[in-house]
Amino acid sequence: MIRNNEKQPLVEDKSHEAEAVGSTRSNTHFEFINESIRDFSDEKQRQQFKKSITSIKIQNTKHIDTQDLDSYITRAKKAQQHWQATAVYQRSAALLRAADNITTHRDAIAGVIIREAGKTWREADAEVCEAIDFLRYYARCAIELSIPEILNDYPGEFNEHWIEPRGIVAVIAPWNFPLAIPLGMTVAALATGNAVILKPAEQTPYIAKMLVEKLHQSGIPKDILHLAPGLGETIGAQLVSDSRISTIAFTGSRQVGLNIIKTAYDTKPDQHFIKRVICEMGGKNAIIVDDSADLDQAIVGVRDSAFGFAGQKCSACSRCIVLESIHDSFVDRLVAATKTLEVGDPINPGTDIGPLIDQEAEHKAQCYINIGHAEGHCALAMSSPLSAEPHANRPFVGPHIFTGIQQHHSLANDEIFAPVLAVIKAKTFDEAIHIANATDYKLTGGVYTRKPSHLTKAKREFNVGNLYLNRNITGALVARQPFGGFGLSGIGEKAGGVHYLRQFTVPRVCSENTMRRGFVPETFDM
Amino acid sequence: MLRQTQVSLPVNNFENRIQEIGADLLEDMHSLSSNQKEPLTDKLMSWSMNDNGFKTQLFRFVDTLPALKNSKLVHDYLKDYLFQPDVNLPAGISTALKAGRFARSAFAMTVKLQVESIAKRFIAASKPNDLLSILHGQWQNGIAFSIDLLGEECLSDDEASEYQNKYLELIQLLSQETCSWQAMTQLEVGYNHHEPRVNLSLKISSLIAKVDSINFDYTLNSLEQAIKPILISAEQNNVFINFDIESYALKNLTIKLFERCVTKYQFHAGIAIQAYLHSVEHDIQSLINTAAKYNRQFTIRLVKGAYWDYEVINAKQRGWPIPVYTKKVEVDASFERMAEKILNQTPKAVGQGGAFLALGSHNVRSISHALAYMKELGLPKNAIELQMLYGMAGTLKTAVVNKGLRLREYIPVGELLPGMAYLVRRLLENTSNESWLHAGESQSRSDQELLASPHQHSLLDEANHDTK
Predict the structure, then answer these.
(1) Which of A11, A154, A443, B445 could form a disulfide with B449 if both were Cys (CB 3.0 to 4.6 A apart)?
(2) Where is the Aldehyde dehydrogenase domain (chain A) (predicted)?
(3) Which residues contact A210 (CB under 8 A, 6 or more apart)?
(4) Inter-chain contact A339–B157, Cβ cutoff 8 Å?
């Protein structure tokens, strides 16, 4: 049973709902309704949102030390057995309560994201919705998954397949979706009966603290979920190498991800299992625009995919591959349309692009901007408003667009994580696909075309985890666009998809010989 | 159905009046020579009426067509669109598409020319001189105009100022041109007001590059700055400016901008309002309050709303409440209620604050209802303006002009490329079995069905059992 001092409203109701959902296993997955984003054309919603976000103060979060972490792991290991034995309905009910809890305070939570990560109103609001979706979706997936499967029905034998938790999961989270991504990884682990140590990004510990509090309030036992704020080099490294951690769920940069994989698969003498690493690492995503594209649509789609949240998304568009015949007019309009974007403090509703996360990000962006000047032609270098810097306390980099970039250039291959877009010219649609595929990353991609055979070809030949046709390439929704790539973009199942939870489990099968002395128990269909 | 009117009416008498006016109009339409009718006789269109898969692909092709620079591309794309699964190709097309090279390019050109000629029916010429002769010709036929500038979406400040310049140029050009036209009492003398000859419709999304409600006050100020020169010029040149209404997301901005502008600038003002919105009653009330508070006269163009599919899909994708009525009969009923609400506000004296009704519909039932209600209120014919789209409803237009009513055509002007989205909407309308116009012109439905009241579904059954 869950031990918590909280009242447990609606557990029964939620459990019944959950049971009803889980009563039949089918290939057609349950229908999932996503949490609605705010309609900011509605004055009431605007006012309420504004009121909620203006009073937000970010507090400092203390780093833990190695001893703290060690004791967390010890306590989690002890508590995990009990959590595993807790009925899946109870675990899911706690997660559904957390979803309701976050929904109640969604605007204030969005305010924390705006303040701590520098997201704009819409981006922050959408992230809170995604977090709520993860809670509701995984809570229900876990119930479906927990029902043992009866395998082939042969007389005299009974075959059953079921899953069990893997143990303690280390969640190592990024700063760019400081609520939704850590929550998604954490909830997947909790729903399947694991304990979790969550190490948030150094840049965004406060929002992580809030999400852990919300989960504790909703009935996730304190020892089952620990927050471990600290540096990647120390706390992160210790987590990855600790022989009691069974699974590492990581989202972040490629370099760190590959290091984690190397370290985690080095099995220690006192370790009685092989770790599993689930890794989502990054992208160098391209949008192809061909000569039949609806340019009104394509320009807005490329612009918003490239510069939303200042390009700090693994799904962001950082390459735009344009067919020769429309290249010049497309670039002209794209540059003009980008100039209308407002760079500034994201606490203001009119801001389209906020600051970069920290000085290091700015330094990297500037390096690549310099490279861009050398490799190609600078079509746009927007400055940032000096007035905004003191407010946001963060560096600003305005949108940059470089044309004349070639396949072998750094700007065509390296993930920059800033509002820097490389425009590459292609002679034909086939060549455009070829260029799009020519990076190590395979995460998102997009095509704007009105030619049916080009759409078909893109589906077949554009190798990415998430392909978007005639729309922007960011903002994947839970259950609607399960998210994740392959190549060097990551390993693991798609987040927000039906298979994601399996990664946190151990599959087991039992075969019983039911024939004794030549007869078997009667079954109804024999 | 509750009727919310300030005049209490014996409903049946009123309904009988509507039926009389409607039957009369229909009779006039039927008696007009059939060469007035402009059904889409084109083979492509008639095929698309019979096969939805074909229709979808054909209209998507039409939408893409302007981007195709030569006949090889046209042929290539046409084949690509039509040789898809779920598309039943009429035999003639299939053969033509597979023919030899010369025939192929000839066929491609034929298709392109056909589409262009259809487009010309709905979109007036892009060259000012061609446009002027069209406008003048219609004026002599007793039809006034409102110009709608078609264009690409406005994505940058440059594109916004281009639009602004085009509006300003149009005001100058049309003012100069129309002053030499003959006087037309039917089109120029309204009830307690005067109608300018030059009438422009504009969309707020073409005024500035970023129209976004999230930053409401700032956006409103930017919009006002952008429209100010246009309104001042309109005032100086005695030009009517109508604020078109677009998607629901921009509706509040449009109304707020309009309310602000009519209190600050003394131009001839009008705004479109969509009857399919649940919020329509509240919106009209807000406009009426503004008219009363500032003693201002303006026109409300009541339309059913052209973005129905988009609004439904958009709301469903986001999980928002659907802002529009989802049944056609509900929209028709809302339209009648709102027509009454606006007609009740008709100014009773020159200079008195209030709203005139401009009724934008091709539906004889909707028109007859408004005319019947005017009779009940004792309003003369020139208290209402009828508005219809250029290139549609030919016989109905002639019939209402002959009745001495003021008719204004909404005339899209622009290049074919940006005009395609508009064209596809018209094509969908003209090939839809839901469309009143289509049913009316093809005479596929009885007059009783065409004039049925949207307020009582049972009325149709009663009518069928009626042995009077």
Answers:
(1) B445
(2) 47-506
(3) A109, A112, A179
(4) yes
| CATH number of the CATH domain containing A230 | 3.40.605.10
Mean pLDDT of chain A: 92
B152·A295 Cβ contact <8 A: yes
* Count of domains observed in chain A: 2
CATH of the domain at A320: 3.40.309.10
pLDDT at residue B460, rounded to an integer: 44
Name the residue in chain A with its Cα closest to that of B252. A41
Backbone phi and psi for residue B204, each to the nearest 5 degrees, phi listed first: -65, -25
pLDDT band (50, 70, 90) for residue A28: very low
CA A283 from chain centre, in angstroms, equals 13
Same domain, A332 and A363: yes
pLDDT in tens, B141-154: 999 999 999 888 99
Same domain membership, residue A252 and residue A376: no
Domain of A154 in residue numbering reads as 45-281+489-509
Catalytic residue, candidates A116, A280, A362, A375: A280
Active-site annotation holds for A317: no
Q: Which chain A residues touch B67 with a CB distance below 8 Å?
A: 291-293, 450
Q: What residues in B contact A337, CB-CB < 8 Å?
A: 155-156, 209
Pairing state between β B189-190 and B193-194? antiparallel
One domain, residues A72 and A107: yes
The 10s digit of each residue's pLDDT in A317-344 is 999 999 999 999 999 999 999 999 999 9
What pLDDT does B127 receive?
76
Burial of A153 (0-12, 13-18, 19+ CB in 10 A): exposed
Do A125 and A102 sit in the same domain of this protein? yes
Contact A41 B248 (CB under 8 A): yes
Rounded Cα gap, residues A482 and A467, in angstroms: 11
3-state secondary structure of A460: helix
Q: What is the pTM of this model?
A: 0.92
The first and second tokens of residue A54, run together, are 């203006």
Distance in angstroms (rounded) separating the CA atoms of residues B14 and B68:
54
For residues A159 and A262, state if they share a domain: yes
Pairing mode of beta strands A317-323, A420-426: parallel
Same domain membership, residue A319 and residue A182: no
Q: Specify whether A502 is located in the same domain as A445.
A: no
pLDDT at B443: 65
Listing DSSP states for A322-372 in one string gives EEHHHHHHHHHHHHHHHHTPPBS-TTSTT-SB---SSHHHHHHHHHHHHHH
Question: Does some domain include residue A519?
Answer: no
Q: Which residues from A are below 8 Å from B69, CB to CB?
A: 325
Instruction: Give the DSSP per-residue string, A33-69.
Output: PPPPPP-TTSHHHHHHHHHHHHT--PPP-PPP-HHHH
Q: How many A/B residue pairs have CB atoms within 8 Å?
A: 79
pLDDT tens track for A444-503 = 999 999 999 999 999 999 999 999 999 999 999 999 999 999 999 999 999 999 999 999
Of the candidates A285, A287, A275, the residue with the CA atom closest to the CA atom of residue A485: A285
Whether residue A280 lies in the annotated active site: yes
Asked if residue A292 and residue A220 are part of one domain, the reply reads no
Taking the alpha carbons at both ends of chain A, their separation in whole angstroms is 40
Contact by Cβ (8 Å): B147, B174: yes
CB B142 within 8 A of CB B401: yes
**A381 in any annotated domain:** yes
The verdict on A518 touching B (C-beta cutoff 8 Å) is no
Asked if B216 and A291 come within 8 Å (Cβ–Cβ), the reply is: no
Q: Which two tokens stand for residue B212?
A: 């976004």
Last-in-domain residue among A418, A440, A469: A469
**Interface contact A41-B252, CB threshold 8 A:** yes
The alpha-carbon gap from A412 to the nearest alpha carbon of chain B, in Å, equals 26
* B67 close to A (CB below 8 A): yes
Q: Let me know if residue A163 belongs to a domain.
A: yes
